[in-house]
Write a structure and sequence with these properties.
single chain, alpha/beta, Rossmann fold, 3 domains, 6-stranded mixed sheet, binds guanosine-5'-diphosphate, ribosome binding, GTP-bd, repeat, Small_GTP-bd
Length: 430
C-alpha cells in the first residue's frame, strides 16, 4: 500500500489534518505541542483507492526541529511514497519551517506542500510567502472547517508514483551498515557508491554530529546506508570509542553488514566486528577494498593470506573491490541482497522434519546412561536470522559436539552456512 507521511514543525496542525483525512478523531489533539507521543498510522479510504497515512506529530518533544527528531522522522520517511509537508497557513514562516524544508529536500522524496488552518477562502491570498519553501503550490486546507480536503486527496493521488500493479509485492529497502577499522576505506567506498557530486554532509563543524541514513537505489533495489555521517568522521577528529559505539548501533539496525577490510591491515578488529554482527543475527559481507594496490601477480598470494587470517570467517562471502577503480562495486550489493534473502529463508515444517528424520536415522545420537537423545520435532519459528527449534526428549543430552554437527549439517544441507542461523533445544516428553 502507498505510504503518505505528514511532516512539519510542531503545532502546525498535523494531527488535526491526520484525523480529518482519516475521518475520525483518533489522536489526542491539543494546542500544546508534543501531546501525541507516537507515530500514528491509519488507512485512508478514498474513491481512487486506499493509502496508509502516517503522522509524525507524536515524535516531537519540544517546539524545535531537533536532530533527534529528524532521526525518528528519517525512519518514518524510509518507506514513504509521498510526504505531506504541513505549514501553518495563518502564521509567518519560521526558521523551523525552513529547516524542515531543507531536510525534506535532502531526503529526495516527493513532497506536497499543505497549508493548514486556512479556514476561509480569503486567507488564501496570504499564502504567497510559502512559495519560498521551494515546493511549489501550497494546497490550502482547514481541518477545522473541513476545507480543501478533497483537493488535497486528489493532489495526493496525482503525486503518488504510478505502480505497475497494485498487488505486486513491495520490495522493502535493505538496511546496510558499513563498518571497519579506521582507515579501512569506508568513507572512500561510500563516496564511490554515492558518486562524488552527491554532497550529503556539510563540512561545517557541528553539522555532522548526527546520524544520517542515505537511501540509494542500485540496480532497482533500494538500500539504506546507515549512519553515513559516522562513516565520514575523520578518525583524528573523532573519539575512537564513540566510533565503535556508532558502528555497533548501525550493526544493530542493519539487515546486512558490510565489513570493510583493508587487505594490508587485517587482525583482531575484523574478527570482533564480524562476530558482533553475527551474534546479533546479521549476515556479513567481507568487502576487501584497496584491491588496486595489490599487484596482479600478488593477488593470488594475497587472497590466500587473507583466507588464513580470516579463517574463522571463511564461510562469509567476500568481494574484492576498490574505491579507486570501482571494480566489483555492484557485486557488493548483489551479495547483500543474496544474504538478505538467505537470512529470510523459511524452511517449511514438513520439509524440516523429513530432513531431520532422514539424517537422525543415519547417525549415532548422543546418549546418556544408555538412553539416546531423540529429536521429536523441529520447527523454524523465525527468520532474520533463521531460528530452528528442536524439541528433544532430554535437552541436557545435547552435547557441544552434537550441536556443532547439527549446525554444519544445516549450513550445508539447507544452504544456510553464509548466514547466522540459530539453534534452540527445548525439552518435551515423548
Ligand atoms: P575510513 O576511515 O575507513 O573511512 O577510511 P578512508 O576511506 O578515509 O580511507 C583511508 C585511506 O585509504 C585514505 O588515504 C584513502 O585515500 C585510502 N583508500 C581508501 N580506499 C582506497 C582504494 O580503494 N584504493 C586506494 N588506492 N586507496 C584507498
Amino acid at each position: 500500500m502507498y505510504r503518505v507521511v505528514i511532516v512539519g514543525r510542531p503545532n502546525v496542525g498535523k494531527s488535526s489534518l491526520f484525523n480529518r483525512l482519516v475521518g475520525r478523531k483518533s489522536a489526542v489533539v491539543a494546542d500544546t505541542p508534543g501531546v501525541t507521543r507516537d507515530l500514528k498510522e491509519e488507512v485512508v479510504e478514498t474513491d481512487t483507492g486506499r493509502f496508509l497515512l502516517v503522522d509524525t506529530g507524536g515524535l516531537w518533544s519540544g517546539d524545535r526541529w531537533e536532530k533527534k527528531i529528524q532521526e525518528k522522522v528519517d525512519r518514518a520517511l524510509e518507506e514513504a511514497d509521498l510526504v505531506l509537508f504541513a505549514v501553518d497557513g495563518r502564521a509567518d514562516l519560521t526558521p523551523a519551517d525552513h529547516e524542515v524544508a531543507e531536510y525534506l529536500r535532502r531526503k529526495g522524496k516527493p513532497v506536497l506542500l499543505v497549508a493548514t488552518k486556512v479556514d476561509h477562502p480569503t486567507h488564501e491570498h496570504y499564502l504567497g510567502p510559502l512559495y519560498a519553501l521551494g515546493f511549489g503550490d501550497p494546497i490550502p486546507t482547514s481541518s477545522e472547517h473541513a476545507r480543501g480536503l478533497e483537493d488535497l486527496i486528489e493532489a495526493i493521488w496525482q503525486r503518488l508514483p504510478v505502480r505497475q500493479e497494485e498487488s505486486e509485492p513491495e520490495v522493502a529497502a535493505i538496511r546496510l551498515a558499513i563498518v571497519g577499522r579506521p582507515n579501512a576505506g569506508k568513507s572512500s567506498l561510500l563516496n564511490a557508491i554515492l558518486g562524488e557530486e552527491r554532497v550529503i554532509v556539510s563540512e561545517e563543524p557541528g553539522t555532522t554530529r548526527d546520524t544520517i541514513d542515505v537511501p540509494v537505489d542500485i540496480g532497482g533495489q533500494r538500500f539504506i546506508l546507515l549512519d553515513t555521517a559516522g562513516i565520514r568522521k575523520r578518525p583524528e577528529t573523532f573519539v575512537e570509542e564513540l566510533a565503535i559505539r556508532r558502528s555497533l548501533r548501525a550493526i544493530g539496525e542493519a539487515d546486512v553488514v558490510l565489513l570493510v577490510v583493508d587487505p594490508f591491515q587485517v587482525g583482531d578488529r575484523e574478527l570482533k566486528l564480524a562476530n558482533e554482527a553475527l551474534e546479533k543475527g546479521k549476515p556479513v559481507v567481507l568487502v576487501i577494498t584497496k584491491w588496486d594496490l595489490v599487484p596482479k601477480e600478488e593477488a593470488q598470494r594475497m587472497r590466500r593470506l587473507l583466507k588464513e587470517k580470516l579463517a574463522h570467517l571463511d564461510h562469509l562471502p567476500r568481494v574484492y573491490t576498490s574505491a579507486l577503480t570501482r571494480q566489483n562495486l555492484e557485486r557488493i550489493f548483489q551479495e547483500a541482497v543474496r544474504l538478505h534473502e538467505l537470512n529470510h529463508t523459511r524452511i517449511p515444517t514438513s520439509e524440516l522434519n523429513r530432513w531431520v528424520g532422514v539424517w537422525t536415522s543415519r547417525v549415532q545420537m548422543p546418549n546418556f546412561k544408555g538412553k539416546p537423545l531423540k529429536i521429536l520435532y523441529a520447527t523454524q519459528p523465525e527468520v532474520a536470522p533463521p531460528t530452528f527449534v528442536f524439541f528433544v526428549n532430554h535437552p541436557e543430552f545435547v552435547t557441544r559436539a552434537f550441536e556443532n554437527y547439527l549446525k554444519n549439517r544445516i549450513g550445508e544441507d539447507l544452504g544456510l552456512k553464509e548466514v547466522p542461523f540459530r539453534l534452540v533445544f527445548r525439552g518435551r516428553r515423548e
